[in-house]
Backbone:
């Protein structure tokens, strides 16, 4: 048996290649959109991918089911009830799929979504105990799939209804399996599909019984309350990606972006295209094209791009041309397909049009303290997520998570200085570039973020989801 986990750290996403070496038959579960990694492994192992299984309709990335089907002729499968606009073979609860010796069994596990399934994996058809179970977004290491995403997306299914379905999926299906059963989820720490996922990407059911807060002994009503409590805001790009995954959309275009000259780039910007610079924040801060949005390619690039960029706008890449193709592919993973080209020479543009050159304002802790002492009027914005701000914020800060920033621009005063901060400085620099692109004139971000402020022993207060304040902490 071959069971390979392909983990994509920038999306906190795990996909799987399952194969039987005795027959050469294989399936891929929850694939990312750039599918060469599965085809290369399959070729090396002498396997043929004959089926693509999506454990549910994903919202946090665009899946690679259409790409794999086009490349291999594989059948696409979802759980029963999946409403999609392309041919699929629906999988029923209890259905077994034989790859030869390796056998898969479908478990219907609604809750995260109505059509969610898990896949039991047996090394041999007669085995009583499964080798493991691919749990999709039903059960994570340290958490369970949040049941409120569809409700907040405007469907008729309430979070309460889905949470109750999730309770029974866990207790009637997954927790009925032996403790030694390995679990392989679709996401790890950093995913917005849960609220406290572990950085571990696999575990056992026994370990999760002992350590997972959502699997503690509790009745159904308590489970619903515990799981729905303190869920972070739904990232705005989730609705778009979920819809893309339901549609017969164009396949991934992984050709290099077209090179564009200075005047063409400026004309596209005037026409509404967003200029995206994917260099590291320090390089961008030192000098960049005015109005560009900066999201560093390293780290959680695709997630932050989904948070702050609109899928309805053209994108022009204006950073390092050497990273243009990688940038384009990473954007496509979250459905941002409208990359119209790459500036051929950023240096030449800034030399020819020096008035388009600008630097970023980045403040040290000491500079922020001095600025605060000079008088009121500074808008201090904490762009961390709710779970982070609950541990403390800088006194006087407003809590606007990065994913909610573009939808909150009207709540900020464009005539007053704005200072953003996050945990260490990465997200706040993304946010500050977004505000400048939106026309805010006086924007800075805090070097080192909340960690630097706290390390300096400066006053903090406990944050709350409502924005109310508790007494300051020393």
Residues:
């Amino acid at each position: 048996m071959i069971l390979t986990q392909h983990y994509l750290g920038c999306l906190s996403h795990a996909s799987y290649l399952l194969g039987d070496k005795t027959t050469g038959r294989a399936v891929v579960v929850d694939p990312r959109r750039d599918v060469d990694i599965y085809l290369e492994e399959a070729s090396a192992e002498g396997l043929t991918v004959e089926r693509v299984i999506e454990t549910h309709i994903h919202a946090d990335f665009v899946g690679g089911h259409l790409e794999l089907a086009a490349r291999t002729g594989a059948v696409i499968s979802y759980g029963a009830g999946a409403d999609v606009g392309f041919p699929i073979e629906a999988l029923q609860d209890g259905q077994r799929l034989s790859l030869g010796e390796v056998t898969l069994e479908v478990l219907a596990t609604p809750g995260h979504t109505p059509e969610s399934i898990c896949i039991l994996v047996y090394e041999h058809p007669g085995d009583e105990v499964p080798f493991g179970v691919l749990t999709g977004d039903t059960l994570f290491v340290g958490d369970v799939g949040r049941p409120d995403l569809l409700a907040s997306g405007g469907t008729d299914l309430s979070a309460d209804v889905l949470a109750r379905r999730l309770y029974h999926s866990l207790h009637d299906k997954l927790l009925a399996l032996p403790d030694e059963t390995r679990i392989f989820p679709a996401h790890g720490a950093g995913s917005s599909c849960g609220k406290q996922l572990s950085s571990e990407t696999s575990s056992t059911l026994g370990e999760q019984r002992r350590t997972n807060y959502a699997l503690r002994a509790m009745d159904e009503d308590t489970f619903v309350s515990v799981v729905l409590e303190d869920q972070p805001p739904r990232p705005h790009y989730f609705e778009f990606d979920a819809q893309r995954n339901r549609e017969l959309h164009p396949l991934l275009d992984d050709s290099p972006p077209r090179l564009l000259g200075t005047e063409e780039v400026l004309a596209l910007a005037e026409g509404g295209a967003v200029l995206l610079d994917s260099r590291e924040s320090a390089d961008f801060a030192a000098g960049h094209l005015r109005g560009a949005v900066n999201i560093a390619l390293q780290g959680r690039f695709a997630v932050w791009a989904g948070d702050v960029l609109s899928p309805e706008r053209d994108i022009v890449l204006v950073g390092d041309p050497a990273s243009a193709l990688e940038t384009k592919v990473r954007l496509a993973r979250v459905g941002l397909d409208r990359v119209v080209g790459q500036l051929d020479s950023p240096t030449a543009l800034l030399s020819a049009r020096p008035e388009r050159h600008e630097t970023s304002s980045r403040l040290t802790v000491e500079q922020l303290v001095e600025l605060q002492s000079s008088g009121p009027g500074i808008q201090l914005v904490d762009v961390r997520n709710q779970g982070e701000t609950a541990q403390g914020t800088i006194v006087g800060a407003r809590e606007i998570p990065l994913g909610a920033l573009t939808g909150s621009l009207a709540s900020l005063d464009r005539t007053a200085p704005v200072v953003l901060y996050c945990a260490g400085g990465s997200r706040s620099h993304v946010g500050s570039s977004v505000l400048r692109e939106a026309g805010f004139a006086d924007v800075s971000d805090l070097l080192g973020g909340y960690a630097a402020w706290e390390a300096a022993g400066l006053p903090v207060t406990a944050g709350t989801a409502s924005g109310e304040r508790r007494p300051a902490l020393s």
